[in-house]
C-alpha cells in the first residue's frame, strides 16, 4: 500500500489521539511521508515546509482512522439469508466488494477485519488494496465460513444440487472440520470464521438459541487453524455456544449475545475479546419491516439486541475487551441519511457498507 509523500498539516480542530487521553483543543496533526510525526497543541508544533499541504478541520475533530472489526465486504443489500450466495453472480459480487471497500474508507475506516466473504474475494480484495489497484482499508481476510451441516448457513435444499461451497464450508464431524480449515489455509486467509450458533434471522430451524456446531468440530477447527498460524472467531449467540467457543480456544467471539456468569468468568480468565456488532440488530428492528422482514424475525432481533447490549455492558464493566464492528451489508443496516458536522444540520446519503 503506497504511502503519501510530502508533508501535510491538519489544524483548527480538537484532537482525540486514541490513547484515552482527554481531547486536545486547538490542535495540529503533522504527517510526513505518510507517517504521523506530531500530534498535539498547535502552538508547539514543529515548523512545516512552505509547500506543505494544509487541511482546515473547521472546528471539527481530528482522530485516528476507525477499525471495523466485523466487516463483510461481499454483503450488499442482503434482504434474506439466501441473498448471500445466489442473488448475484460472483463476478458482480467482486465488483460490489471493491465498491464496499472504497465506501468503508470514505466512512473513516482505515482498517477492517473480514467476518466472512463469498468465495475468497476478501483475500484478493486485500491484495488489490495493498497493490493500490482499488482504494480501501487495510484488510484481514477470512474467506469462506465454516458451519455444521443443517446449521444456520446451510439453506440450499439438496434437490437444487447447487450446494453452499461459494459462501460456507459445511462440516459433519471433526475430520471434516479439519479438512475445511486446510482448504482455507490454501486460500490464504488470516482468520477462520465459524458458526457455532444460529441467529434470529432463521427462527424456524436455527434461531439464536440453537447450536450449529459441536464442541468437537469447534476444537478441531481451532487446533488445525492454530497449527497453521491462523486465528479463529465465531458467530456466538446461544449461551452454550459461547462456552464451547471459549473452551475450544477461540481467539475472539462475534456477538457474545447471551452470556451468563459462567461464560463471563471464562471469557475474563482467557482475556478473549468480544465484538458485539449490535448495529445489525438495532437497524433490523428500526428498518427491517420496510424490507419485508417478518415480525418473528424482528422480535428475535429485539431479544438479541437486548441480550447483546447487556452482555457487552457486563464485559466492559468487568474489565473485558470489546471490539467495534457493525455487521453491515444488509439494506436495513443503516438509516437512509446520517447527519454529519458539529455545528451545522447538513446530512449526506450513506449507502450500506459491507
Explained architecture:
The protein has about 350 residues and is of the alpha/beta class. The protein folds into two domains: about 5-60, Urease, subunit C, domain 1, CATH 2.30.40; about 65-340, Alpha-Beta Barrel (TIM Barrel). It contains nine helices and 16 strands. The protein has helices at about 85, 90-105, 120-130, 175-185, 215-225, 240-250, 260-270, 280-285, 295-315, and strands at about 5-15, 25-30, 35-40, 55, 60, 65-70, 110-115, 140, 145-150, 170, 190-195, 230-235, 255, 275, 335-340, 345-350. The strands form four sheets. The protein has a six-stranded parallel sheet with strand order 10-9-11-12-13-14, covered by helices on one side. Strands 1, 2, 3, 4 and 5 form a five-stranded mixed sheet that branches. Helix 7 (about 260-270) links the parallel strand 13 and strand 14 (about 275). Helix 4 packs parallel to helix 5 (about 215-225), helix 6 (about 240-250) packs parallel to helix 7 (about 260-270) and helix 8 runs antiparallel to helix 9 (about 295-315). The protein is globular. The two termini are about 20 Å apart.
- Intertermini distance: 21 Å
- Into which percentage range does the β-strand content fall? 15-25%
Spatial strand arrangement across the major sheet: 10-9-11-12-13-14
Number of β-strand runs:
16
Main sheet specs? 6 strands, parallel
User: According to CATH, what is the topology of the largest domain?
Assistant: TIM Barrel
- Architecture of the largest domain in CATH? Alpha-Beta Barrel
Q: If you compute it from the alpha carbons, what radius of gyration comes out, rounded to the nearest whole angstrom?
A: 21 Å
Number of domains: 2
CATH superfamily grouping of the largest domain = Metal-dependent hydrolases
Mean pLDDT: 90
| Uncertain stretches of 5 or more adjacent residues | 335-354
Number of H/I helices: 9
Helical amount among residues, as a percent range?
A: 25-40%
What is the global morphology? globular
SSE succession: EEEEEEHHEHEEEHEHEHEHEHHEE
